[in-house]
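Thread: quick sanity check before group meeting

JM: Hey all, I'm pulling together slides for Thursday and realized we never actually wrote out the predicted structure for the chain we discussed last week. Dropping the sequence here so it's in one place. If anyone has concerns about the input, flag it before I start.
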Amino acid sequence: MHIDWAALGQVFGVTLVVTVGIVGLFTVGIVGTSRKPAADGAATAATAPGAGARAGAMAAFALCAVAVAYGIYLIVAT
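JM (edit): ok, ran it. Output follows.
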């Protein structure tokens, strides 16, 4: 049996980069939708994220969903 170590290394490298990228995008989405602490002296304890942050978070979540759907497509496609 012969193992192509170069191809195995390429698969490992691409998998590592894509995994870190998807986790990073998901983290950006979570940070974009999280509540922000209010400034000192404010009446409320936390404030909702702005519209731009929320839109960016939804875009990040959408890109994560697209990446997962594409991965499933690659696995299932014949």
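AS: nice. Residues 49-78 form one domain. Residues 5-33 form the longest helix (29 residues).
JM: adding both to the slides.
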